[in-house]
Amino acid sequence: MTTHAVNDTSVLLGRSIKHVTRSLDTIITVTIMPIAFLLLFRYVFGGAIQAGTDNYVNYLMPGILLIAIASGVSYTGFRLFNDMRNGIFERFNSMPIARSSVLWGHVLTSLVSNGISAVVIVGTGLIIGFRSSAGVLAWLAVTGILALFTLALTWLAVLAGLTASTPDGASAFSYPLVFLPFVSSAFVPTATMPGPVRAFAENQPVTSIVDSIRALLDRQPVGGDIWIALAWCAGVCVVAYALALIAYRRRIS
């Protein structure tokens, strides 16, 4: 980005952040609901689930973080759709601002809000027993994976927001994404699942992402999972970004 584009993006980022902080339902969805899932699995289901670990909170944490991100990005599509419906896009396009900043303002807002949500969730986890022996580099790797995962889903949200015909359609795409961690290794080992479900769980992207984060936090060998996780995230991000740009150009042409 040029200096002009960076300045424009920072202004639009501030605008979007204000919208987030003034929206109670957004705060509830991206923070309180994942914490509710964390407490539910820890204190209600945890005693009946055999995950092969003495600290089930540690086992839960990666999946809860991914659910929080999948829930949070839906508001990016919703806010983008509202900007188009309310004529904000036309106003921005009539102003001397970088066109790319309109989308990047929303994308960076998603990164910031989901990052804050992740910190709050980890903090809650520490209160109820989450512990990690990971060093600084491992935490940086976890942060990088979560950031790339957020970017990938956010660009999907941008694409949904640009192509949807209703507000519900702009955010409904995230429902299957929220469901994916439940059919993965996020809450139970995939070995406990019936054959077809296990095959799906072991070959969908969330499992490799969860297993990589869990291994990093527990200071265990990551193996090839991390490369599969990064490939999934990067691939989705690149494809969604390219399609979002095409949809955006059609909208403003």
From TrEMBL:
User: Which PANTHER family does the record cross-reference, listed alphabetically?
Assistant: NODULATION PROTEIN J
Q: What is the lineage of its organism?
A: Bacteria, Bacillati, Actinomycetota, Actinomycetes, Micromonosporales
Annotated source species: Paractinoplanes lichenicola
Q: Which InterPro entries match?
A: ABC2_TM, ABC2_TM_bact-type, ABC_2_transport, Nod_factor_ABC_transporter
Location in the cell reads: Cell membrane; Membrane
PROSITE patterns recorded: ABC_TM2
Q: What is this protein called?
A: Transport permease protein
Give the UniProt family note. Belongs to the ABC-2 integral membrane protein family.
Pfam family name, one = ABC2_membrane
- Residue ranges crossing the lipid bilayer per the database entry: 24-45, 57-81, 102-130, 136-160, 172-191, 226-248
